[in-house]
Amino acid sequence: MFEDMGVFKIYSAMARHAAEAQTHASKNIAHSDDPGYRATSLESFEDYLKRTSLSPSESEAFKITDSGTPTAPNGNSVSVEHELYKSAEAMDQHQLALTVYSKSLDLLRAALGRR
What we know:
Elements: H1 6-30, E1 40-42, H2 45-51, E2 64-66, H3 80-112
Antiparallel strand pairs: 1-2
Helix pairs in contact: 1-3
């Protein structure tokens, strides 16, 4: 029943996107000293929603691309500062998704009289 409600699908996908973005940022930071490592980045959540026509599903994967940051002389393209920023941004996005999701459940429970 709850899976068919749009707000739950969108904010569930937003939480999954934030978790995946956090994974990519930490992976990039872990490889920041590896010669020749190319940093990756995840498509924005807005691009993901456009691509999935505002109906995200758990089977639809997020697109991963090269980050496009300049490379160091050793061929590594990880910017630790940029990755830390992306990590903090993902944390904020995850917190927003969980807050809206839980408040929507509270509203639904209140409407059903099951508070």
